[in-house]
Amino acid sequence: MAIWLLGWGLCAEQAGAQEAKQDRGYWEAASDTARDITGDITVSEMKLSINFSRFTIAQILELTPANATAVFGADTSTRGGGNLYRLDVPADKRFAHHNTLCGEQETQWMATWSDGRRLQVAFFSGDSMPAMTADALAKAQNVCELLEYVR
Description:
- The chain has one domain.
- Helices cover 26% and strands 34% of the residues.
- It has helices spanning 2-20, 32-37, 65-72, 134-139, and strands spanning 25-29, 41-43, 47-50, 53-56, 58-62, 83-89, 107-114, 118-125, 143-150.
- It has a nine-stranded antiparallel beta sheet with strand order 4-3-2-1-9-8-7-6-5.
- Strand 3 and strand 4 form a beta hairpin.
- The longest helix has 19 residues, at 2-20.
């Protein structure tokens, strides 16, 4: 019985790690806003690629379903996973159609949530880590863009 419980625990841990990595890979812009600002993107363990530009990212925390609901309005009854990343995209960096991610501010945070086929991405400005609650985000001035991608 102890061996079975240990094996089940390891499988559950691996499933959680796999859900957190669902944001990795090549993603096609699905929303008009994503097409207008970034075009297609690629997320890897340490890089975000937007319109032939690469930015180093660092995973800060794994999002919970409650975080995803607060940021994206995602249905937490469906499986998925996502992360909060730290990055540094200069305010003057232009992408598709000469658009920026956060207007005149540096983009310093990226939150993701994916069910494996669809990826939602939120970009934030500011030095402080964004609070991932609905109340805090409703009052936040640092939410830049909410974009959607598909495989």
